[in-house]
Amino acid sequence: MEEVEVVVAHTQRATLRVGDVFLKVDGDPAHADIEVRAMDLAPIPTPPILWRRPPVLAIAAVPGQALGILGEPSAASPAAWAAAGAAVRKLHEAPLPPWPGPRLDDVAADLDRECAWLLTHAVLPAEVIRRNRAIAGAALRPWQPAFIHGDLQITHVFVDGDEVTGVIDWSEAAPGDAMFDLATLTLGHEERLDDLLAGYGADADRDLIRAWWSLRSLGAARWLIEHGFDPDAPGCEFDVLRSRMREP
C-alpha cells in the first residue's frame, strides 16, 4: 500500500503525495483553472495532468530533484542553475497568458499594508522594516509584462543533473514583472544569482531583483506566520530582510 505524504497543508489548500501522484486540493477552483491553463501554455517542461475533479487536481511527479529548498544551500550545479535561467527566459519570452496579472497600485497598497502590520506587531526591528520598504520601492514602477510563473520558489523547479525536468505549481501564473520570478527563485540563495543569469541573460536588472527580494519577504511574512510557517527560520525571509541592513 502506498503511503500518503502531506506535502503542504493550510486553510487555503493542501497537497498530498501518493506514490508518483500529487493530489492538490484547493477551495478556490479559480486556482486550478489558472494552473491547468498556464501549464498548457508554458513552453517549458511541466508535470502531466492526470485528472481533475474539483476541488482536486491530480498531477504526475516530475523526475529529478528540486533545485533546492529555502534555508539550506543548493546542491545543484552551476550548470543546473544556468539551465533553470534559460528555461525562465523562454517562459518570459512566450506570448502572454490571456488573463490579467497583478496591478501596480494593488502591489503598492499590499506592501504598505503588510509593512504596517509588521510594525504594529513588532516581529522585526522597525529599522529593518523601513530599510527594506525603501529598497522595495524600486520595484514599484510600471513594468513591461512577461509571462511569469508568479510563485517560482526554488522548490518548484526540478532538475536531473544539469537539465530542467519540470516546473510545478502554476496557480499564480499571469502577465507580470519578469524580475519578480528571478527574485523569487533566488530568494535566500543570492549567491546563485550569477549562475542563474548565466542562462537567463545579462540584461536582467539586478537592482530590481534586489528590490523584489525585499518586497516579497515583507509581503509574505504575515501570511507565513498566520499559516504556521516560520519566516524567521535560518536562511528564510527574515534573514533576507536583515541582510539588507549590511549593505551600503
Automatic annotation (TrEMBL):
<dbReference type="InterPro" id="IPR051678">
    <property type="entry name" value="AGP_Transferase"/>
</dbReference>
<dbReference type="Pfam" id="PF01636">
    <property type="entry name" value="APH"/>
</dbReference>
<dbReference type="InterPro" id="IPR002575">
    <property type="entry name" value="Aminoglycoside_PTrfase"/>
</dbReference>
<dbReference type="InterPro" id="IPR011009">
    <property type="entry name" value="Kinase-like_dom_sf"/>
</dbReference>
<feature type="domain" description="Aminoglycoside phosphotransferase">
    <location>
        <begin position="50"/>
        <end position="205"/>
    </location>
</feature>
<protein>
    <submittedName>
        <fullName>Aminoglycoside phosphotransferase</fullName>
    </submittedName>
</protein>
